[in-house]
Amino acid sequence: MKKPWADKHRVFATGGSYGGYMVAWMNGHVEPGRYQAYICHAGCFDWQAMFSDDAYTWHAKELGANYWADPAKIAAQSPVSFAQHMRTPTLVIHGALDYRVPDAQGLAYYNTLKAQGADARLLWFPDENHWVLKPQNSQLWYGEFFDWLKRHSTKPARGHKG
After folding, report:
1. Among residues 17, 70, 85, 119, which one is catalytic?
2. What domains appear along the chain, each with residue ranges and CATH number?
3. Which residue from 100, 81, 89 is spatially nearest to 18, judged by alpha carbons?
4. Residue 78 and residue 47 in contact, taking contact as beta carbons nearer than 8 Å
5. What is the pTM of this model?
6. Which one is catalytic: 46, 78, 94, 98?
7. Phi, psi dihedrals of residue 159, rounded to the nearest 5°
8. What are phi and psi of 9, to 5 degrees?
């Protein structure tokens, strides 16, 4: 059923933290073209490498095992294991001071996308943590966020001339 407020030319998925993990997961599982673009803020890309985070003690509970006890189980939950399917344009955002999801996660995700020829952009903050808190950085974050959506919209916004 069509909805008057839904526009199939402007379907995006964005998320931060767990939502960022879900965006990376979707990029490896949802057929390219379903979403015009993704935005991944502070998302997990590789659960084995995530053992460098500040919450490593809860991984076994959340994932069902430690990576050394059941590597296949952990790999099956890691977006990195499905990287060969990732084609959707993605803006990856991360802070260097993020200890919950270390920035190597975002850098690996971005580099993987670029190495495969996917349209990807990295917004990396050397002075931010899991969330972007400084006013000037927040302004940049929002500008990049909305510019990415506009760039990947397949038709002009309603009311836009041209």
Report:
1. 17
2. 12-151 (3.40.50.1820)
3. 100
4. yes
5. 0.92
6. 98
7. 85, -10
8. -85, -5
Exactly one of 41, 94, 130, 152 is catalytic; name it.
Answer: 130
What's the CA gap between 37 and 51, in Å, rounded?
29
Annotation says 52 is catalytic: no
Tally of CB atoms within 10 A around 85: 14
Q: What is the pLDDT along the chain (162 residues), one digit of tens a residue?
A: 678 888 888 899 999 999 999 999 999 999 999 999 999 999 999 999 999 999 999 999 999 999 999 999 999 999 999 999 999 999 999 999 999 999 999 999 999 999 999 999 999 999 999 999 999 999 999 999 999 999 999 866 555 444
In the numeric block, which tokens belong to residue 101? 């999801």
